[in-house]
DNA-binding protein (Actinomadura rayongensis), 135 residues
Amino acid sequence: MDDVPAAAAPGTRREPRGLRRFLRRMASSDAELEAAELQETSGREGATPITACGERTRHCVAGTLRTVTLRPRGGAPALEAELYDGTDVISLVWLGRRRIAGIDPGRRLRAEGLVSVQDGRKVMFNPRYELRGGS
């Protein structure tokens, strides 16, 4: 009963915070839970939410790699990865690379670079990156 405040109005009953959190988690989908967890983790890492990243500005973003694809650009190889942080996605593109050790789907990553927009999608070319905990 320690979680129930003494100042509750007569006739009303407040649920303990832990119970509310448990019920919210039970009613949420896996995708909603993943998004909330990624947002919380990214915030602790000092990253900007992808949804708040403006065009032509440098940002640090963090999240989980959803896909990693080899897509040639202008005849040269380019490794493209989609990073999701719970708010939005950004494409990370390393020009001239076919593979980078550790850049795999499901891997947590922190990246820093200049954000641009191509075809309505946020893109970061040749970002500096730091691999985080395992996949």
